[in-house]
Amino acid sequence: MAVAFNSRVFMRGIAGRSSSADLGNRVSGVCFSAGGVSSGVKLRVRATLQVDLEALEIPRLDDSAGGRLGLDVVSEGELREKGFLGMRKTKLVCTIGPACCSLEDLEKLALSGMNVARLNMCHNTREWHRDVIRKIKKLNEEKGFCVSVMIDTEGSQIQVVDHGAPSSVKAEDESIWLFTTQKFEGSRPFTVQANYEGFSEGITVGDELVFDGGMASFEVIEKIGNDLRCKCTDPGLLLPRAKLSFWRDGKLVEKNSELPTISTKDWADIEFGISEDVDFIAMSFVKDADAIIQLKSYLSDKSSKSIGVLAKIESLESLQHLEEIVEASDGIMVARGDLGVEIPLEQIPTVQAEITQVCRQLNRPVIVASQLLESMVEYPIPTRAEVADVSEAVRQYADALMLSGESAIGPYGDKALSVLQMASSRMELWSREENRQSALHQHQLGASLPDRIAEQICSCAVEMANNLGVDAIFVYTKHGQMASLLSRNRPNCPIFAFTDNNNARMRMNLQWGVTPILVELSEDMEANIIKTIDLIKMKGVLEEGDAVLVVSDTTKAFQSIQVKTIV
Asked: By C-alpha distance, which of 48, 110, 28 is closest to 560?
């Protein structure tokens, strides 16, 4: 039985400069090999990459053959100012709240580098969220931004409390507070309203009540029906709509283990997200892969677009099922605040590093979230320890960093975003200069031969790009898969992902080092390359002598690697 698979890998080069290698020499060699067994016949696929050096000038497109290049204004400005290697690779997520929901504030955040806007469905009304989403889409359409929208479900977390004030309230040492299930409008002095009548079931006098992962702590001194009277033992800020937990004898009192991951309210919020055409849905309090699979199946039936499902890792149970959760999801959020309630504080750094590594192995973007710049909720500058924390997340090659209260309720959200931008850019530069990029121990993702070949192409392409010192990687992709595989290998140079699928473009906004560009593509690969390079040149950000490595997956039967030097 004869079996044939039509996948050719080649590299065509044009003479030109390179920052770390001499492209004036002919380069050839075996890039990868993959094996398989079919009907008793052992198959072996090899790909030989070769650079033949010849001059090739990209012809300039005339108006009739031209096109529109969907490069967002922020990336274009950064490219003009800093060049290819100066482009920030770590993506930035901002939680939108009362402090930054106006059109002007949202534009400031977009200009400062916000890649994804997060809307926490725990707070505000759906009408408020709808208004914010439409403002973001308006900025994208009219001002040339590329900001994706994420909604974050509340989850079946019964211990949610609210003091009724629009901003934070200070709990002083030994002050007495009432935690009540009574429903009332506005705020009352020293009173916090719980959202669930049974929130105090099983709680006894002497138990510890921890507010929002440790922002403040109280001792239960009296139980009055369903209400609790508590004394503040660790003073701190009480944020609106915060989570609380109960502790007894140094152990967490588990109260919501039987609740479903997706609540009735969550399903209504998910329907809202579908109707508003959001790009990502983040699931809270994920316990295992089942709820993720359920939601993805529901979305495939209900939504015409592919909405990314992110799982929030914020409990001990989610850590115990980490790998299956990562595999089932489209990305992970490390919710360190809630996670820090359930595991010892000293374990947070190593757990964060482990989650980041697992996500990279399984090719899922990972967001490091919670308390990155917590002091900037009140102050215009961060602590030096917070900057070091941000830098460590970047050093671990997290795909994205997220602001929570810093942007949602703090008066210095744009400054906090600038701190993330500066700290991540500096750490990326330092890591490259110190050659700290560690090779990823490859975990095979694909089961089929074409998928394994795609993985090897991208791994080989990144190694070549680093060794040759090319200025950028251009990838032409229908759904973003090759772009994500390239991102997984964390190249030194930026990745420009050209796609004619706007859904894929917005999904790639969470991928490390990927600048997604919307452009009309054809089946003619060479025509696509000529067209996009010419459009980039017309922007004035691609110069003579720049070398780019080109990867394509736009046709199933033909995948390629090429090196082009602009002349």
From this structure: 48
Taking the C-alpha atoms of residue 376 and residue 423, their distance in angstroms, rounded to an integer, is 15
CA distance 397 to 330: 17
The first and second tokens of residue 62, run together, are: 């005339």
* CA distances from residue 462 to 31, 83, 369, 515 in whole angstroms, order as listed: 11, 19, 28, 16
Q: What is d(CA 556, CA 286) in angstroms, rounded to the nearest whole number?
A: 35
Return the closest-CA partner of residue 535 out of 83, 64, 84, 60.
Answer: 60
> What is the DSSP code (8-state) at residue 252?
E
The DSSP bridge partners found for residue 191 are 178
Cα–Cα distance, 98 to 412 (Å, whole number): 12
pTM surpassing 0.90? no
Question: Which residue reads 């989610």 in tokens?
Answer: 318
**pLDDT tens per residue across span 390-407:** 999 999 999 999 999 999
pLDDT digits (tens, 9 = 90+) for 516-529: 999 999 888 888 89
Question: Residues 509, 399: contact at Cβ < 8 Å?
Answer: no
Q: What CA–CA distance (Å, rounded) separates 87 from 517?
A: 15
Pick from 392, 390, 412: which is nearest to 401 by CA?
A: 390
Q: Can you give the three-state secondary structure of 381-436, one letter per residue?
A: CCCHHHHHHHHHHHHCCCCEEEECHHHHCCCCHHHHHHHHHHHHHHHHHHHHHCCC
Handedness of CA 51, 57, 63, 65 (dihedral sign): negative
Q: Which residues contact 234 (CB under 8 A, 6 or more apart)?
A: 173, 214, 216, 217
How far, in Å, CA of 345 to CA of 366, rounded? 20
Cα separation of 148 and 503, whole Å? 10
Please answer whether residues 310 and 331 qualify as being in contact, where contact means their C-beta atoms are separated by less than 8 angstroms.
Answer: yes
